[in-house]
Write a structure and sequence with these properties.
single chain; about 250 residues; mainly alpha
Length: about 250
């Protein structure tokens, strides 16, 4: 199977967690604290992945300058795009409570675009990880994306349902974003095939900066709001699990 197609399959797998979470969140009454706990765990996994799978690899391939520049650029681009989406009603895209009911008319598109913004850097990372000869896909990256997407689908679908949005709309949004995640992984693999180590390093660093900005802006605050005193401990557990997986896999 061509590498680009493999990247698409792995990206789709990571993105499919959004749809899985949405289905569970729509049909089952999942306690908000459990959703928050999964979100905290997923945050820890993502922090570990961006630290050891992205930033460390970017520094090894491209040195400090390109890594630092890419890292800051990723955070800046994500922040600016997130501000624009927030002003159009997508601020509460990860919320499971009644916050989405207070969003302005037409916020559904902003929520969908915001979720896509959250997922693109993660998907590109999956595609890029296959470019390292003989290494195969980064299982830590796939696991991190999957675990972070499940609670997003859960919380957002529950919030959309309370806001009065229909089943077709909710499942259509998350199914479409899951497909877009696979496409982003495939395109990332194709676009960077044959690229210099510096370009790949910069791409990893950009993705790392965007992911960390997303975590600080959306996932961690939502997790803390419900899990409270246990959010930090659960996040550390996710970080440790991903770190052990990366060491065992290496």
């Amino acid at each position: 199977m061509p590498l680009s197609l493999q990247a698409g399959v792995w990206g789709l797998l990571g993105g499919s967690a959004l749809l899985i979470g949405a289905v569970v969140g729509w049909f089952a009454a999942i306690p908000a604290r459990l959703v928050a706990a999964v979100m905290a765990f997923g945050s820890g996994v993502l922090i570990s992945a961006l630290s050891f799978e992205l930033m460390d690899e970017a520094y090894r391939q491209g040195g400090f300058d390109s890594t630092a520049a890419g890292f800051l650029a990723g955070a800046l681009v994500y922040t600016m795009a997130n501000i624009a989406i927030t002003h159009r009603g997508g601020a509460h895209r990860k919320r499971s409570g009644h916050q989405q009911q207070r969003a302005e008319e037409g916020a559904g598109l902003a929520i969908a675009v915001g979720a896509l913004l959250d997922g693109i850097p993660e998907s590109v990372v999956i595609g890029v990880s296959l470019l390292d000869p003989g290494s195969g896909v980064s299982l830590v990256a796939v696991a991190a994306v999957f675990l972070s997407n499940v609670p997003e689908g859960l919380s957002s679908a529950a919030g959309m349902r309370r806001a009065g949005r229909g089943r077709g709309y909710v499942f259509g949004v998350w199914g479409g974003i899951a497909l877009a995640s696979g496409a982003a992984a495939m395109l990332g693999n194709i676009a960077l095939a044959g690229a210099s180590p510096e370009w790949i390093a910069a791409t990893n660093a950009v993705a790392a900066g965007a992911i960390l900005a997303m975590l600080a802006d959306t996932m961690i605050p939502e997790a803390f709001e419900e899990a409270r005193d246990y959010a930090g401990l659960i996040t550390v557990g996710g970080f440790l699990a991903a770190f052990m997986l990366s060491r065992l896999g290496g």
